């Protein structure tokens, strides 16, 4: 699995509004993918804080890419559960979304996501996810 294949998965498997987030693949390793979410006025709330909806969409997207990296190819899946904790506001910087596959079986996959500031490295959001593999 190479960088270009993961980046190409964004327009291939995700809706146009997800593509509009401007996500790019920052790095990847076995079962781990890190995306960059660029700071944008369109994704910010009052005070320039990145909105939670954008963080959750980016987290879900990163986890699907981590599953692609884990399996070596896209497998149809659907989000069963996502538990998200917002730790602190994220403003004035890009976000890095690191998604890690914790376990992937025959019918379910589990993951953890950390969203942190690209400049300060501080965690702003943590999420856990469960996916049904179809």
From TrEMBL:
CDD domains for the chain: PaaI_thioesterase
Signal peptide: none
Keyword terms: Hydrolase
Domain Thioesterase: 52-122
Family matches, as InterPro entries: ACOT13, HotDog_dom_sf, PAAI_dom, Thioestr_dom
Keyword Transmembrane tagged: no
The keyword Hydrolase is annotated on this UniProt entry: yes
GO molecular function: fatty acyl-CoA hydrolase activity
Family listed: Belongs to the thioesterase PaaI family.
NCBIfam families according to UniProt: unchar_dom_1
Protein name: PaaI family thioesterase
Naturally occurring in which organism (per UniProt): Hydrogenophaga crocea
């Amino acid at each position: 699995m190479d960088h270009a294949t993961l980046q190409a998965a964004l327009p291939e498997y995700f809706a146009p509004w997800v593509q509009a987030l401007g996500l790019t693949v920052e790095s990847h390793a076995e079962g781990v993918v890190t995306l960059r979410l660029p700071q944008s006025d369109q994704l910010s709330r009052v005070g320039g804080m990145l909105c939670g909806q954008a963080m959750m969409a980016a987290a879900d997207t990163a986890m699907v890419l981590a599953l692609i990296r884990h399996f070596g190819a896209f497998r149809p899946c659907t989000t069963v559960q996502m538990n998200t904790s917002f730790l602190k506001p994220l403003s004035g910087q890009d976000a890095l979304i690191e998604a890690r596959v914790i376990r992937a079986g025959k019918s379910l996959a589990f993951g953890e996501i950390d969203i942190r500031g690209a400049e300060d490295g501080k965690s702003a959001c943590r999420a856990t996810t469960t996916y049904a593999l179809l």
